[in-house]
Amino acid sequence: MNKTYRIINPGYDNQAKQFIRAQGNFLFDQNDQPFIDLVMGAGSLILGHSDKVVVEKIKQQSEKSSLFLQNNPSVQALSNKVAQLIPCELINQIYCNTGSEATQRAVRLARAATGKTHIASFQGGWHGMNEWTLLDDGGRFGQSTVRADNGIPKVALEYSLLLPYNDDAVWQIIDKNAKQLAAIIIEPLQGSNPQPDIYPFLSKLTEYCQNLGILVIFDEIITGFRVDPGGAASLMNLKPDIVTYGKVLGGGLPLGLVAFTEQVFAKTFADKNKQILTGGTFSANPISATAGLATLEQLTPQTYAKIKGLTSFFLNELNQAFQNNNINFHADGSGSINRIYFTDQKIKNRQQRDGFEISAEKQTKFRALMVQQGVLWPTNGIVCMPASQK
Ligand SMILES: Cc1ncc(COP(=O)(O)O)c(C=O)c1O
Question: pLDDT of 253-262, one tens digit each?
Fold first, then answer.
């Protein structure tokens, strides 16, 4: 007999189809009908679905063990690989299970290191389900700022600050709040507006904050191992104090990582007067680590070249089609992180995007029409290209 039940996951409810298997660039429904997948595990599946090597390694590891509750050889091997890729100052690594956990750990670490309370994030940014950065929804799920704050105590929001993105109004706000601000967290490239012209702003922000004793957290959960083998900090030669990773790092399985400098370590775990909680049942998961390592090991210069080639093809075809059909949209982004801007205006930040783009309803209709054409378009609009070409 069927029991009544309800799965509550509004983010997934809007999906147009149910898929039962996936391979490479394709998802397949119950009738084995293929759909091109532009969601790619929200950017996690950089090699495409069910990569043969990753699948084989997962099988082998699951036969050995799925859980040790110890730092095990798989985690050690992944850490060693990660240390070779990310900026060399970030020698301390804390594992957890998701991006949201990583940003939450990073925030705790920043508060413990500085003894300060407040955390600032940027309009249009997204750092997962972490209470401290939910002053807006990251511009991913519709237009205009949404305070997704029910269930979050007011006091948590009072310790959070929302900053204007890529905007010189920010410096005065930082000055005013410097005494309370433990850290500023920022996506080096925002999924809601992945534009490479952010470098001067990021560079100034890092220096400005560090001069005021505010820690800088780069949230590289999308950009890590994607925009460059060492992520955006490495690509731009910037020196954040703390960096969070996820998505690609887990090779399609749940995994999060917080990496941080010796200076932060000295003020936290090395300080005998401080006790900071981290860890958890699955915080050195050998299967996730194995999938992650099998993925990172395949990210060779040739792999990045394939991703670049597919990205250029995707953008050129779209922009050509818009032009040929007199449609005022453009497709653009940075590296393999792209989106359609449903406007022909150049966008500086998410507020401008909301102002210029066609309505959220029309964008939803666009996604529904794409499904009819056999293409699954991400609800948050972020298209992360994979290396897979089939
Ligand atoms: C930049 C960024 N940070 C954090 C997160 C949260 O990661 P997770 O969904 O694994 O909790 C995401 C997820 O989309 C993200 O894009």
Answer: 999 999 999 9
Mutating to test ligand 1, I would choose from 96, 218, 222 the residue with most ligand atoms within 8 A of its C-beta, which is 222
Atom of ligand 1 nearest to the CA of 220: 1
Cβ within 8 Å of residue 214, ≥6 positions away: 114, 174, 178, 181, 182, 183, 184
CB 231 within 8 Å of CB 224: yes
- Indicate if ligand 1 lies below 6 Å from the C-beta of 137: no
pLDDT at 15: 62
Residue 50 Cα to ligand 1 midpoint, Å, equals: 21
Q: Last residue of a domain, which of 296, 326, 361?
A: 296
Domain that holds residue 326: 30-52+302-384
- Positions in the chain whose pLDDT score sits under 70: 13-16, 138-148
Residue 252 Cβ inside 6 Å of ligand 1? The answer reads: no
User: Kind and range of the H or E element at 369?
Assistant: helix 360-372
Specify if 20 maps to a domain.
Answer: no
Ligand 1, closest atom to CA 246? 10
So what's the pLDDT on residue 357? 92
The alpha carbon of 325 and the centre of ligand 1 are apart by a number of angstroms equal to 35
The side-by-side arrangement of strands in the sheet containing 330-334 is: 330-334, 337-341, 383-384
Where does a domain end: 296, 314, 349?
296
Ligand 1 within 6 A of 124 CB? no
Residue 7 lies in a domain: no
CB 386 within 8 A of CB 48: yes
Sorted by sequence, the CB contacts under 8 Å of residue 306 that are 6+ apart come out as 387, 389
Helix extents (H) in 150-285: 154-158, 170-177, 199-211, 231-236, 262-266
The pLDDT, as a whole number, for residue 49 is 98
Residue 144, pLDDT score: 54
Does 232 contact ligand 1 (Cβ within 6 A)? Answer: no
State the pLDDT at residue 352: 86
Give the atom of ligand 1 at the shortest distance from the alpha carbon of 99: 7
Tell me how far the alpha carbon of residue 340 lies from the centroid of ligand 1, in angstroms. Answer: 20
